[in-house]
Specification:
The protein has 311 residues and is an alpha/beta fold. It has a single domain (11-309), classed as Aldolase class I (TIM Barrel, Alpha-Beta Barrel), CATH 3.20.20. The protein has ten helices and twelve strands. The chain has helices at residues 44-56, 75-83, 100-109, 124-131, 136-148, 169-178, 202-207, 274-286, 294-297, 306-309, and strands at 11-15, 61-65, 90-95, 114-118, 155-160, 182-187, 212-217, 220-224, 231-235, 248-251, 256-258, 267-268. A twelve-stranded mixed β-sheet has the order 7-8-9-6-5-4-3-2-1-10-11-12, covered by helices on one side. The longest helix is centred in the N-terminal third of the chain and has 13 residues, at 44-56. The two termini are 22 Å apart. The structure holds S-adenosylmethionine (SAM) and iron/sulfur cluster.
Length: 311
């Protein structure tokens, strides 16, 4: 399926809940979100049906996200259902990692191929502050559980924030020397709760001049430490706009297709089935804007917080 700028759309990010067990300061308000009625959120069957229709239209990679996907009741059923779809070659999941100690092995058995674990600091006090309630040790145990469950190529997502974790860039990069992880630094985007602390991805290269470039992967520029086991990636939606290589669509937990993370346009999918559903998905992909306008507008036009869209 192609959009109107001839980009091939093969990647679906599917949000399975807007709820979360953490309250990261740049993502969610301190009081959390008003819990939606059960009926407002897509059922397991609806989520699998939407993923199936997207796969019929040419999607080959699905990422489950949220909110925190691991707090979603039925998450294993959702994984199994999507992994069984003939067109889906890769099923990934983005998580804060806190529930991986219990869930890494069942997720692997349910067919999840790869994990991205979000971790913005390696210091327990900072982690508790930024997440307003999390414990760093749970995430570290979660990473270990993921490795033991047989996950490889796990990525660690670090949102770069001036005055919060920029003094830890070297510590995160050093992790890639010892562990076969890809540490991905992500530029903070002006969306939802995020207002201050933006730092360009190039800061990582200035602080770590020893990094050697390797091939890019999707929207990530990548490097490695000489002799290191892992990789360092930069996701730079602000300073190196990568919209030209965007291959993704998003579906929110309440069943609305977002052609672009940063546009307010949404296409309701609930209640559609078969060819009607596939047509709506193709129309949504075709409606992708050429690029986002965060630099000009100063804010994302997403119209929702990140926990509702899934990043
Ligand atoms: N709860 C899961 C997690 O934290 O990985 C999945 C959902 S979370 C919204 C997905 C990703 O979006 C996380 O890596 C998070 O750090 C990132 N994120 C949230 N708000 C952001 C912002 N304003 N700018 C950049 N990344 C953001
Ligand atoms: Fe929850 Fe992920 Fe948002 Fe943090 S970034 S509050 S873990 S959804």
């Amino acid at each position: 399926m192609k959009d109107s700028y001839q980009r091939e759309i093969t990647y679906l990010r599917l949000s399975v809940t807007d709820l979360c067990n953490l309250r990261c300061r740049y993502c969610m308000p301190a009081e959390g979100v008003v819990k939606k009625q059960h009926s407002e959120i897509c059922s397991v069957e609806e989520l699998v049906e939407m993923a199936a229709a997207a796969a019929d239209c040419g999607v080959t990679k699905v990422r489950l996200t949220g909110g925190e996907p691991l707090v979603r009741r039925g998450i294993l059923e959702i994984c199994r259902g999507i992994r069984a779809l003939p067109g889906v070659r890769e099923l990934c999941l983005t998580t804060n990692g806190t529930l991986l100690p219990e869930l890494a092995a069942p997720l692997r058995e349910a067919g999840v191929d790869r994990l991205n674990v979000s971790l913005d600091t390696l210091r327990p006090d900072r982690y508790a502050y930024m997440t307003r309630r999390g414990e760093l040790s749970q995430v570290l145990q979660g990473l270990e559980a993921a490795e033991q469950a047989g996950f490889s190529n796990t990525k660690v997502n670090v949102v770069l924030m001036a005055g919060f974790n920029d003094d830890e860039i070297g510590d995160f990069v050093a992790l890639t020397e010892r562990y076969p992880l890809e540490v991905r630094f992500i530029e903070l985007m002006p969306i939802g709760e995020a207002d201050k602390g933006y730092l360009p991805g190039d800061t990582v290269l200035e602080r770590c001049p020893g990094l050697v470039p390797v091939e890019a992967s999707g929207v990530a520029r990548r490097w490695r430490l000489p002799g290191g086991r892992g990789l360092v990636g930069l996701i730079e939606p602000m300073s190196h706009r990568f919209c030209g290589s965007c291959d993704r669509i998003r579906i929110t937990a309440d069943g609305r297709l977002k052609p672009c993370l940063h546009s307010s346009q949404e296409i309701p999918l609930r209640g559609l089935h078969g060819e009607e559903l596939r047509r709506a998905i193709r129309e949504g992909a075709a409606a992708k804007p050429e690029r986002h306008h965060m630099a000009e507008e100063g804010r994302s036009q997403a119209g929702r917080d990140m926990n509702e869209i899934g990043g």
